[in-house]
Design goal:
CATH architecture of the largest domain: 3-Layer(aba) Sandwich
Number of strands: 15
CATH topology of the largest domain: Rossmann fold
Shape: elongated
Strand order of the largest sheet: 2-1-3-4-5
Order of helices and strands: EHEHEHEHEHEEEEEHEEEEEH
Largest sheet: 5 strands, parallel
Number of helices: 7
Number of domains: 2
Distance between the termini: 25 Å
Radius of gyration: 22 Å
Helix content: 25-40%
CATH superfamily of the largest domain: Response regulator
CATH class of the largest domain: Alpha Beta
Structural class: alpha/beta
Length: 235
């Protein structure tokens, strides 16, 4: 679930940015939760409370009381790592936006495609903390690592075998390998397995917990046994 906070003290701008964000996230097939704020101080206080796991903040800069930069400084001071997109009618604070590690600084009126790009960058960063964000058959999927049993190369595509379904994505298996954490092992030129989903291995084959059989390259057999042992003892 992608959690977004939007803040603007102008009611019309807040409504417009909220509607636009919802529209873009829906078009991209992203599951989200969104909360709107019309007061920057209230927004900052809320996001600084424990148990407020927002992934992205979209905020105006100019406001009465504290401004968006000052709110961002407060969030950064407690180690808050959420992405920030600033929206402003002026470029005056652009350099300060980068000082607080803003993801983007957008001018009003917001360019739809620039906002879409920023939303997708933030979402993919968030998704990759616990899984992958992949396009499969024209739809964007957020796939948790623990859902993946194994991946198989099929020409220019990769078929992912998940615990409850199969998905095909257009990419090289070598590129997928670079995106996966240490619990995955490329045991064959055409296969990557989730080591936590391996039931048994023998020369030169792995039996997965879903009862599928996966070949293991002879030269990788010993390394896979060692990696499997390490991954399971670290659980």
């Amino acid at each position: 679930m992608f959690r977004v906070a939007i803040c603007d003290d102008e009611a019309t701008a807040l409504q417009l940015n909220t509607m636009l964000t919802e529209k873009l996230l829906t078009e991209e097939g992203i599951s989200y939760e969104l909360r709107s704020f019309d007061d920057i101080q209230d927004m900052a206080d809320t996001l600084m409370r424990p148990g407020q796991p927002y992934d992205l903040l979209i905020t105006d800069i100019l406001a009465s009381g504290i401004n968006g930069i000052e709110a961002a400084e407060k969030l950064r001071s407690i180690g808050e790592k959420l992405d920030i997109i600033f929206i402003s009618s002026t470029a005056e604070y652009a350099l300060e936006g980068y000082r607080v590690q803003a993801l983007r600084y957008l001018k009003k009126p917001v360019d739809v495609e620039q906002l879409r790009e920023a939303l997708l960058i933030s979402y993919r960063k968030t998704a990759q903390k616990e899984g992958l964000s992949l396009t499969c058959e024209g739809k964007l999927y957020n796939i948790r690592y623990d859902e993946i049993v194994y991946a198989e190369s099929q020409a220019r595509d990769v078929e992912l075998t998940l615990k409850d379904r199969r998905l095909v994505t257009h990419m090289k298996i070598s590129d997928l390998e670079k995106l996966l954490p240490d619990q995955f092992f490329r045991c064959h030129r055409s296969y990557i397995v989730n080591l936590l989903e391996v039931e048994t291995i023998e020369r030169y084959q792995a039996t997965m917990k879903n009862e599928d059989y996966i070949p293991i390259s002879q030269q990788l057999y010993t390394e896979m046994k060692n990696r499997m042992f390490q991954s399971q003892t670290q659980r």
